[in-house]
């Protein structure tokens, strides 16, 4: 489509709207001489005298009058001047209300000629043709159409003057007005708003489609570059081959957290409001925010809708990288992306784009600078009012509030947290990453790791359990180290050490290249390393300065300083710069715009900044001078005020690198700064402890800041009981009218009769990261709860804490607790829940259970989850404070232990007993009913009941519970019975005397809601039980 030609077409429409419409309005006014300017046209015509009026409104049958739509009726009612009437509406009332006009159905209204009716018809016909024909006309065609229209309009006015007896002066005045208006439209440049009022919708579709095609052609998102400075060749990995779905959480800040399915990310906001939408994605450094952006860009560019639903509903996708500083306005962005490839539409594009269905992704609010901040504000301002626009922010937690402040309240907003790669997917991610590395750079390592090597390393690192390995960046570093330096890592490798090893690997590769370089090949090793260290000190400084000025790419001045430093040290500048940085090329569709040096990830720049601070402190320490960290940062940055929250990740790295010879005051200063930077949640402190090898001094200072629950308890006295939590803090039975008594509050995962999800007791979700739950405060004596993900953090922390109550909730291999035992010696374990053993029972109990219980057992134990052995039985029999027991029985031998437990224990404090029996247990092994205790809530579950095992299940239930006792809940986990099978089960239980069951729960996969409605009355009348469909999530095979 030609814009210049369309402009001429628009001018034709403008002439019709301005000049032609004005002529028709004049005709209407001249033809209704008695109309009061303040009355609407209908009121006027209704008051005409039928006996004298010569109007068609009076003379013609009302049934033949043109019908008005609601919009036209509103215009007539509200506009006595007729200014807002269009040509169609004006013509209707000229026909009806003007005197001496031809009848409504007269042929003059529908044919060419030189009568007034003919001329009015030709004006209407010209408007119709202009609206429905192509707007693309040449300048010559425009002149011809304008000349004809001018002639028709003058003729129309002349005939109207004659018909309605108007004066020559009036005619001359109106003709002059029309000619002035048409001349102005012809000669003046077309205003953008005027053009956009007239263009056809297919023109907008054409332009937007063309822009989308150009964006997609230039989106280089098929590959990612993984720390390419580690190799001499450019290494690009296929994004699709290594991308892993990551976990999102919504509502964590409001305390209403829930998982968000990766494909439904955009659907959280898309179409949810008549306002434009903002989706804020918060995630820790290295959690995969930028890779998510790249993946979304790739999926949009190839039209895929599989990994992120709703992406293909956006006609355009614009990406803004906050680290870039070359754009500062929305028009800059559009010009950068689309000029001069579309110079003809330059003026139109900003408006066309912002009114289209649009996704704008703004990556890295934590990296925002002065220019990009202006750009973001302008984008958000321009998009207001477009409900088809979605803006997605990504940000680190420390910059979240800054990002939220940028968003006007005219936007619909949703915030989600990017948690990282869930457990169970990390091993697969590493294998695929390493496979791509091997394909991309074959021969760069003498002996690439085998699959067995990789699996061994993954097991040794405990990748699936440790918190810092949920971050994709850390796993990427692990993959690179596995490929190049596999012997450097072990079970205790922290996040800080990962970056240290990458740095060491970089130096090793650099040294090899310097040995082969003509400029440095004759240096001795010590001399060469000293020069490199000297240059690195300068680089650390420049990196820190750039960071404090919100710059992730080095400015020209910094690059020149580093290059000059190389010259003074006789080092090759290109080799040195390329060893630690990568060259970023900022591209628009116009081609290459800017080349600059930057680190591959902000984490590396922050690490360099932390190393700079340590160097400064060490130099001052040697000179016996004192200057605090904040002063060093301010002096180096050359700014009056430092944004401490933006330094949070740098300070976390600094904490992990504090030398052992720093005194306590220096350590305390850094940790205090970390709190000032926004580290105040338990999860944040525990991350720092786990991600670093903190010195003892650091741990001691952190203990003063971390909000651990639980008061200290005094030295153990074997003759006295330890203080117990207040009654209000302990789980209590509900009233008889309530649902099943549970051992925890409604937020916990213990069974309830109402919850549609898995009603069995469960540990917290392994992938969650809200340690406020794991360190919950229960009054003044609340225990510390430890789960798998925090074993390493508490291994370091517990030995520095006063005596505490501890709850162990382990969902993985119980052997992982072995490293924690020494730290637990001084504390009292009151919960010992081995959920993996409970959910995955075996005939032979896990070999480590007895040994672990021997180490952690205390007579104050309140909860046990797992299986029974001879030793476990003997320990539980000695505990009189047990309140919750979760047992899986998977052999006749274990059933014997269970019989002994329930017959030899008083259960005076027991509140909840959950027993799961597998199909390997014979009913004859159950020789005693579970005791009839009013204060105990009993949940009996049978595993894997099939049609062939209905009789076994019924006999087992009858043996476990007293037939008419009541108060039980019975559940059937992983059962495959159909409707007929459940009816048979219920009837068989009834024949065996099982009555007054409170609830019976069956898998939601076995029957439908309709089938539930049919079976429920049978269950109620036979067993006295309510029947529920449940999602037994934790019991899936």
From TrEMBL:
Xref: InterPro entries: NACHT_NTPase, P-loop_NTPase
Keywords on record: Coiled coil
Protein name: NACHT domain-containing protein
Region (Disordered): 712-776
Domain of life: Eukaryota
Annotated NACHT domain residues: 277-399
Coiled-coil segments on the chain, per record: 143-188
UniProt xrefs under Pfam families: NACHT (PF05729)
Organism expressing this protein natively: Petrolisthes cinctipes (Flat porcelain crab)
PANTHER family attached to this UniProt entry: SLR5058 PROTEIN (PTHR46844:SF1)
Compositionally biased tracts (Acidic residues): 717-773
